[in-house]
Amino acid sequence: MRTRSYMVGLAFMSPALVVLIGFFFLPVVLTGVFAFTNMSTSTGISGGSYVVTGNLLTALKENGVPVEITDALSKASFVVDPEGIAKARDAGTDPAFLAEIEQQLGGRTFTDERLFERELKTLQHRPRSIRDLKLAVDQFELSILNSRFTSESAARQAIATFLPSAPADTVDQIVEASYTGWTWTTANFKQLFSTSDTWRIVLNTVFYVAVTLSFTVFVGLFLAVTTFYLPAGAASAFSMLWLLPRITPIVLYAVMWKWFTWEGGFLYTAADALGLPAFNYMKGSVPTAWTIVIMVNGFIGAAFAMILFSSALKAIPVQQLWASEVDGASRWQQIRYIILPHLRWPILFVTSYQTLSLLSSYQEIWLTTNGGPGRTTTVWALESFNTALNSYTGNLQYGLGAAMALILVIVGVSLSIIYLRLFRFDELLGRPKIEF
What we know:
single chain; 22 helices
């Protein structure tokens, strides 16, 4: 019977388990996998080929590869061999001209394009058009630059042809650097922990979470207590007004704040009429930008906190409040000695929940300041989103963005465990100590 009950319970839980695995565990696992790769728009998400480009040669010089080696790879030679003759024939070169080239220049190699052109101009059946002559020259060009090789062995063989005396480790370095696909690497984490931008974004995130969380808790608590002492009708109307930030679509909510703070908006017009500094308060200065970001997110969180605190206030036995009034307690004394102790668990829950929510939120900042002015209001979640999915350069760095997201997951899980231990949520979820 017990086994049957377990099976029925598992059947009821299976939809939730599927959702949990599909929408939480699987994305986290994939994020962890991508974090240890160099995947980007340039590498793609599948295998790549081997290409030696001019930019690659510049990077190799900066990484210590001798200049003579990179110069050798950048130079082209012109070889009159059967392969070149066949390419020229397929390109439509005059057969009589090709026969003359093969007869008089066959087997020769030219390291200078002008010298090869000069030799071709001496032939009787040369084309009269300079364009046709250069087209014929191009068919005999032998260069590794911008040539695409589908396998490592083919790339290594081609590089060795141009660098017959190069050290093996140098050839290995060039082959590895020329690969255009993604590879396994820990460079993402090394980059994150070694750049100054990382620590600036960390400080931005800590400041954003701490200040917005304080705003959320204190404003939400103030609203809940205020409406608790208002008449029922006024309290309901007041609560509905403060729910608007929570229930308004985020895009419309951001547009409203832009109308309120941008040039020509309400604040701009009012400040200009009063003779105060009038500018774009959302992006015009760092202090005002941070103020707007905190208020935009703070009002959404405050509405959520107000709902929870108001529900908890209604659970307080009204007899305690009546007894305190009989004893002559003031409103402040009721709040301090009765209401706040009863709201301990809701306050702790809102604190922990909003901390984790703010750590992963970026859409409000993205739709308002977009991390500006400059990058002064950029937080970790927004930087991760921009790196992986919204890069202005067009090269989306999936691996680096995934590494940032993975760090955010680790921080969130760690904070969850700390909150569980610090706030002793097991007591909240445990069996009551007094049985009725």
